[in-house]
Amino acid sequence: MPDPVITAAASQIATCRATGQVPVIRTFFDIPTFTATHVVHDPATRTAAIVDSVMDYDPASGRTDPAFAQEIVDYVTAEKLKVEWILETHVHADHLSAAPWLQERVGGKLGIGDAIIRVQGIFGRLFNAGTRFARDGSQFDHLFHDGAQFRLGTLPVTAMHVPGHTPADMAYVIGDAAFIGDTLFMPDYGTARADFPGGDARMLYHSIRRLLSLPDETRVFLCHDYKAPGRDDYVWETTIGAERRHNVHVHEGVDEETFVNMRTARDATLSLPNLIMPSVQVNMRGGNLPEPEDNGVSYIKIPVNQA
Ligand SMILES: [Fe+2]
Q1: For the segment 138-177, what is each residue's pLDDT rounded down to a tens digit?
Q2: Domain extent listing, the chain
Q3: How many whole angstroms from 182 Cα to the centroid of ligand 1?
Q4: CA distance linking residue 114 with residue 129, whole number of Å
Q5: Cα 295 to ligand 1 centre (Å)
Q6: CA separation (Å) from 258 to 5, 191, 263, 270?
Q7: CA of residue 35 to ligand 1 center, whole Å
Q8: For residue 200, how far is its CA from the centre of ligand 1 (angstroms)?
Q9: pLDDT of 55-104, one tens digit each?
Q10: I want to staple 144 with a disulfide (CB 3.0 to 4.6 A). Which of 23, 38, 159, 167 is the partner?
Q11: What InterPro entries does the entry give (predicted)?
Q12: CA of 52 to the centre of ligand 1 (A)
């Protein structure tokens, strides 16, 4: 059975490459969290989307730092871009989103996958977030389903649900470029972990197989890079062809069982990201801090002996 979402995305990519209708992409790399924030725009209309923004945060002092997010605002302003979307590929566990801070300054609708509701259920319980924390995705302006199509200016966009790292991961295919979040990393580094609450290595394998069935020439933009051994620079762009042939974890020929065994064994050796507690509590609220307490201050909780 052909996958209709892949068929639609593949034909979009082929058409955009044939007609030269491709986005301009500028990436900003946040070194403290190893995150790539992409500003994508349609050169015909200057309509833009910001994918996976970062608000830096010092957990020792509990202070946010908008310097990196300000670089995005400066670029958008200098390039006279009209921000229509602020997109999240998922609820990140390693950095805080700058989405609401950016939205106040440059506008745009905040979008994420519709499975966010499951993620809010899981983390709402884990953090005992109470009845004031809505678990219906209402903190976001739009929830995308698998196969959702829209336009960024004149550019066609297809959203794909690619769960596994978390239940709600999305990839956004904009023109000929796929923003794939935490699924694949650079071919020499491998794949995202699948051991967070709601993660599933088998599901991740299937999502990656879907991505790898896009055309070889698809430009691929990653959410993170950690430099692979022997590589000195951060890199965040590759192609589906390069991933299919060379990805160290999941190149062509790696079957599901081999991948799941490798991923599960590797995940057992990884420690949790430094910023997992603040990141999850903020990002499940669309990048907003938890509701302030009666003294007007927001607090980040840590469940002791739980996670
Ligand atoms: Fe992530």
Answers
A1: 999 999 999 999 999 999 999 999 999 999 999 999 999 9
A2: 4-283
A3: 5
A4: 20
A5: 32
A6: 26, 14, 9, 19
A7: 9
A8: 13
A9: 999 999 999 999 999 999 999 999 999 999 999 999 999 999 999 999 99
A10: 159
A11: Metallo-B-lactamas, Mito_Persulfide_Diox, POD-like_MBL-fold, RibonucZ/Hydroxyglut_hydro
A12: 10
